[in-house]
């Protein structure tokens, strides 16, 4: 039966899908430098109830955004042409069509438990849930990396955010109980077991609930700086700069590019170091790597802020094995690796420190590695 027939028969292809948010254990600001990342999917996910339509309309509803549905004509979609939250799902439909897939409209009802703007990738969760639903409903046969690339292109070209591939790969390709070791150059991936409970550990997520305005402009500028540095060094990407040659390479760069380049190169090394420990089953060894990663983001990449610094410093002082900001920076969330029996003390210490500093109380929860995008009904 074709989609059109089934709609006439009152049974348009439909279903329910979920795609998660993520936290990145280590490997920050490396994904647009062809480098390595190590995200885990969160139990918090975007759910989408999707029913195909044959009249070319995309009707988008979000429980969180509220209000009536946003109605868009699929044929009229143009990059930059949709305002507000609806641009994320619309971007996916536009990108599928731009890639040559003859897809049309749908009724899409979104209900997401991923906090927005908290550095936990609520935007990729929306893109990936819609992409996965369309892939299934239209039988497109796209695999995980192809779906992630499509969702990234949607965010880059239609929404206009020059993000790397990590968030979309995490939302689509993560599996329960594992971290995703991803080479963002060729999307080679390996599921790395992360049995936190088995190791007597917990991964605490601290959403600082601040996002400084700087974020978007600074991100584009940092990305451009990395590309300029790679070009000056005659490299395809900063990924290709060997840590052994870092000091000599920095000498060849203008002063303002040296710290960010040092961050990217040492951060890639930290991902490899983390993997080496995880492969030996030594999860606790991640702690100091996280804290070193935070120092690099704060001092070399300069994307931290007083709130994330306070959360990291307080968590470590309260007994966390290590902590760092996660996500693009200038606010968002911090992760802290703790022993199971210090989890509550660490969370309480951070909350008290925020109150004492006059900040709004952070939101805290424990992350358990969850599965990537999938059909649930
Ligand atoms: P992050 O991806 O880190 O959460 P972004 O700024 O990239 O932050 O994306 C947040 C945006 O994604 C929101 O401002 C909103 O437009 C959209 N979004 C995320 N979740 C939802 C939702 N449940 N309903 C509607 N829009 C959402
Ligand atoms: Mg986002």
From TrEMBL:
- Segments forming domain GHMP kinase C-terminal: 277-354
Q: Which residues take part in binding ATP?
A: 62, 117-123
Q: Where in the cell is it found?
A: Cytoplasm
Report the EC number(s), separated by commas if there are several: 2.7.1.6
Which reactions fall under this protein's catalytic activity? alpha-D-galactose + ATP = alpha-D-galactose 1-phosphate + ADP + H(+)
Where does this protein hold Mg(2+)?
A: 123, 155
Q: Where does substrate bind?
A: 28-31, 219
Which NCBIfam families does this chain map to?
Answer: gal_kin
Spell out the protein name for this chain. Answer: Galactokinase
């Amino acid at each position: 039966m074709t989609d059109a027939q089934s709609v006439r028969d009152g049974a348009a292809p439909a279903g329910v899908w979920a795609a998660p948010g993520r936290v990145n254990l280590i490997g920050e600001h490396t994904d647009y430098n062809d480098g390595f990342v190590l995200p885990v999917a969160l139990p918090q996910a975007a759910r989408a109830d999707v029913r195909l339509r044959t009249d070319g309309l995309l009707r988008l509803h979000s429980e969180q955004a509220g209000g009536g549905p946003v109605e868009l004509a699929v044929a009229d979609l143009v990059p930059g042409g949709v305002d507000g939250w609806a641009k994320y799902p619309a971007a996916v439909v536009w990108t599928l069509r731009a890639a040559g897939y003859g897809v049309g409209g749908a009724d899409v009802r979104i209900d997401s438990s991923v906090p927005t703007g908290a550095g936990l990738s609520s935007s990729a969760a929306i893109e990936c849930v819609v992409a996965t639903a369309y892939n299934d409903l239209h039988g497109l046969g796209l695999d995980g990396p192809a779906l992630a690339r499509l969702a990234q292109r949607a965010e880059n070209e239609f929404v206009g955010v020059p993000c790397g591939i990590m968030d979309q790969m995490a939302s689509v390709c993560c599996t329960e109980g594992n971290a995703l070791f991803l080479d963002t150059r060729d999307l080679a991936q390996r599921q790395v077991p992360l049995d936190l409970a088995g190791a007597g550990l917990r991964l605490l997520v601290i959403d600082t609930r601040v996002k400084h305005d700087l974020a978007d402009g600074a991100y584009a500028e940092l990305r451009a700086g990395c590309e300029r540095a790679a070009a000056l060094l005659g490299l395809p990407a900063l990924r290709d700069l060997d840590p052994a040659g870092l000091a000599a390479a920095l000498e060849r760069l203008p002063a303002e590019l040296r710290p960010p380049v040092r961050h990217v190169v040492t951060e890639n090394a930290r991902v490899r170091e983390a993997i080496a420990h995880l492969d030996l089953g030594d999860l606790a060894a991640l702690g100091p790597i996280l804290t070193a990663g935070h120092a690099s983001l704060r001092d070399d990449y300069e994307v931290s802020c007083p709130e994330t610094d306070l959360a990291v410093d307080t968590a470590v002082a309260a007994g966390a094995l290590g902590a760092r900001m996660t996500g693009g920076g200038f606010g968002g969330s911090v992760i802290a690796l703790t022993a199971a029996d210090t989890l509550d003390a660490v969370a309480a210490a951070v909350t008290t420190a925020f109150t004492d500093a006059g900040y709004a109380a952070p939101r805290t929860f424990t992350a358990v590695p969850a599965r990537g995008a999938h059909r649930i009904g």
